[in-house]
Amino acid sequence: MGQERNRILDLLAGGRITAEEAGRLLDALQAGSPRDTGEGAATAVSSEGGSGEGTSAKPLTAPKFMYVKVVSTKGDNVNVKIPLTLVRAGLKLTNLIPPPAMEQINKSMADHGMSMDLSNIKPEELEELIQSLREMEINVDAGNGDTVRVYCE
């Protein structure tokens, strides 16, 4: 029960559910509702980030692809589908980089304003990052009619 409770609180802290939804989930969990056994918090939140009220609840699954779509008024359209397994594999490959080379990479990144230590990314944090991409959506409508959309599914 502690894991489910923590999962609900994490969803609330991450802004993926409202306080009201968290309260309902915690009440259902405490009452021992069959809906909230196992991965209850995850199944109670639909893929759109809502509570699933009025609709059937969908389990949260990690997104599989990142999409980048550009529609230009000049006809220069772009449609890119990036498998997120590439992100996982790429970050796992950082474990194969020798420490001196990793130090140089991190220094170069810091010099360019990206202070990030790639060697500190843990597998569970990577999965959490990929799961949070589900909530990310970027929509740009330029004044000239061009549109850009970046999202994960």
Structure in words:
It is a single chain. This protein has about 150 residues and is of the alpha+beta class. The protein folds into two domains: about 1-45, no CATH class; about 65-150, no CATH class. Helices cover about 40% and strands about 15% of the residues. The chain is built from six helices and four strands. It has helices at about 1-15, 20-30, 40-45, 85-95, 100-110, 125-130; strands at about 65-70, 80-85, 135-140, 145-150. Strands 2-1-4-3 form a four-stranded antiparallel beta sheet. A hairpin with a 6-residue loop joins β1 (about 65-70) and β2 (about 80-85). α1 packs antiparallel against α2 (about 20-30). It is flat and about 55 Å long.
CA-CA gap between termini:
29 Å
**Regions with pLDDT < 50 over 5+ consecutive residues?**
33-58
Which structural class fits the helix and strand makeup? Answer: alpha+beta
- The DSSP helix count reads 6
Q: Tell me, briefly, the overall form.
A: flat
Number of domains: 2
Strand order of the largest sheet: 2-1-4-3
Keywords:
153 residues, alpha+beta, four-stranded antiparallel beta sheet, 6 helices
Write a compact overview of the structure shown.
This protein has helices at 2-13, 19-31, 40-43, 84-93, 99-111, 123-132, and strands at residues 65-71, 78-83, 137-141, 147-152. By secondary structure, the chain is α+β, with helices and mostly antiparallel strands.
How do the strands and helices of this protein lay out in sequence?
Blueprint: H1 2-13, H2 19-31, H3 40-43, E1 65-71, E2 78-83, H4 84-93, H5 99-111, H6 123-132, E3 137-141, E4 147-152
